[in-house]
């Protein structure tokens, strides 16, 4: 009981420790806030410009969510195709891997030419960076069906679609939710990177303008806001995962 | 070598003759000179997974196929269920030429392959959601089907576990549920591929009796693939021995032990003699 409570609060304790050391170092050596702002200075900046920062944060949040929504739709469909057909797997997988190796930030200038400055490039960058893990996980879940089970069902006259719906899809759900957790954090990266060079709004834009004005506490406050949003969404999907596919996490207090 | 080969010819001929001795109209499973190569390349090279299988069973007969691992026993299963078509020869099941997957068959394997997100009861009901005519009636008659599944689970000693999930059951219980799933649509033939291979000795013997009782009551046809000779002799009417790849039937042994059989019988000299005899045959195959 005691050790599990300690485990639960361990990240919080570590965080407080890091902040304390950070603050101590900044105060002791009198580090200039233009070089490396202390936590207190960052919090100050956050509250001084609370309204403006929240405006940018909201913009980044919904842009990310739209991009993420597209990436769920595309990732699921592509994963379904790749996972249920060996031919599609052979044809598409190497290309997808090559695509995934490209730095997504490099797409931003191209997207700007096509869609102009604003939400277009941000949504699409978030999508491009986050659909891959979703697709791979769906495909893996479908492709690793036990052949015996497939035989049992095929003998009964099951069509491919029956096998996919009765077995493939439910079996894939834990993989799917696990991939959402990874993908949502990537989507925030995509949006922020795109906003840094191709937007007049959003946390990415805030970071760039704060940086060029040497307002370091503000830049750090922007980072803090992205981190909090990404972590909140991660926990949200983690919660959904635990409550919809508990059977895949047996042994963790399921009895 | 030549004398061994000719002795084998004699045995194969004897097995074919035994198959032919059952009148045409009374055969349930009927393999007539069946060969299978898995793909056209292998066929062209003359590499077969099973060769020249001829065997017939009477309706309600319990047969076991034993042999060294990798001998084509599982290939035999795929042929008997219509999941694979023979490269040569004919297969008839229940008087019908096999042209595709056979819905009158239930299957169970060494791995229970239950779906972890379904309760035991829902796992057993799965075939009824797929196979006709149950499929189209499933919604309307769900309660009735569920009652049937509960009854079946009771006969294998799983009452009280209907609403548990597979991972809450022991290996033996999962295998019982898997056999129930194979039987829920009242198939005329049950195919078992080393179903008790992963269980401990006591559980295995318990399940032998579960299977014996189900078969005694319902008299479906059984093909049991196993490498446990005691299991084969205890349960089956006829035991076939398959050679290593390419798989051929090299021995047919009728088991004339009286029924109903009880585990006590496995300690009688009569029983152990048969096991020894089969053991010697398999030993001889493994050496060649």
Q: Percentage of helical residues of chain A? A: over 70%
Q: How many strands of chain A?
A: 0
Output the structural class of chain B: alpha/beta
Report the CATH superfamily of chain A. MetI-like
As a percent range, the share of strand residues of chain A is under 5%
What's the CATH architecture of chain A? Orthogonal Bundle
Radius of gyration of chain B: 19 Å
Number of helices of chain B: 10
- Here the CATH topology of chain A equals MetI-like fold
Beta-strand residue fraction of chain B: 15-25%
Rounded mean pLDDT of chain A is: 88
Please state the CA-atom Rg of chain A, rounded to the nearest Å.
22 Å
Uncertain runs of chain B are: none
Number of E strands of chain B? 10
**Order of SSEs of chain B, N→C?**
HEHEEHEEEHHHHEHEHEEH
Second rung of CATH, namely the architecture of the largest domain in chain B: 3-Layer(aba) Sandwich
What structural class should be given to the helix and strand makeup of chain A? mainly alpha
CATH class of the largest domain in chain B: Alpha Beta
> Main sheet of chain B, how many strands, which sense, barrel?
6 strands, mixed
